[in-house]
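hi support,

uploading two proteins for the ticket. first:
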Amino acid sequence: MDARRRYQADTRVVRIFNTYGPRMAFDDGRVVSNFVTQTIENKPLTLFGNGQQTRSFCFVSDLVDGLLSAGRVETYDSPVNLGNPHEITMLELAEEVMRVAGHRVDVLHQPLPKDDPKRRCPDITKARALLGFEPKVSLTKGIAATYENFKARLELRRARV
């Protein structure tokens, strides 16, 4: 925004919401990578609070499509949210990861951090109108692709040790 104001740069500003997919870092601290890695390694899933807080997750290819669309349209004057508006609880995410994995692991409940929001979900109304943005990859397909990628990479890493 400073470059636009100061130098009249042709800019687009987007807000990126929880994105996930293959090739994420195993230990980046995000809930999807944590749950997938813990499930593959047969470790308990770390679930904070009672798991009823909600999030929404956008598969990486959907986000990339949104970013490319933002670069193709005429400039716009305020940020556009890119993410998936489909909300699920953290408990539902844990169940989905285990379902995709085909096996269950224990769930370890930890205290909910004080600053943890109860709800996080983007309003993509503007992205739909300006960019024609609409997430296409279902959570099940996205988690499956992420799980298979993580499993292969973890097996490769173990083979090197």
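and the second one:
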Amino acid sequence: MHISNYVGCNGLYCPDVNHIGYLMPDIDISPEQISVIMISEAAPRNPADYYYASGDPLFQKTTVQAFNDAGVNVSSVLEILNRGIYLTTAVKCSKTEYGIKKDTISRCSMILEQELALFPNVQVYLLMGDVAIMSFNYIAQRLGEKRVIPSGSTYKLRGGEYYFQGKRVLPSYLQAGPGFFIEKSKRKMIAEDITKALSLVTYNRLHGIKDP
């Protein structure tokens, strides 16, 4: 399945993003094989830096390093996918300023909601940064549920247990982009969160739990 064939923007207008920079994963995957979804912030300004671009794009480089930090020996996004981990962004267009407005995150969360619905066997959601957390909360509230991740600093929230439709949700920090290499303290916490996500999947598998 090519995700881009099933999910689209449908003309949403957001003034603080570059619509020319719209990117949706255009890869052939089997959604039923995915157990973890890692959601980062927004599409990169340069499409050549996107997760699924050819060569060694920046998003791949920093994400691979994050998994290596966690003790997972991978060298590409394809190898991460083969481990049942899907990578996407909360906002599908590249941002024009440093931040992204709440209205934009809310609108684009409707696209993310469609995308996440394609994966029937997800056990853990990794929310990489504030934009992903906010987007996920918008999805939950639109579905009549309470916000998944409460307000507060990610540093304090990481110790809690959060669920969405029975699946674990882990708040973390942004791993996609140049800032990842700079903030060493956050790199350590990102690695811990990746390790936790994978350990939850392993635990469920060992105990025969398909829908925790």
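thanks. also noticed: Strands lie at 17-18, 36-43, 85-95, 124-128, 162-164, 167-172.
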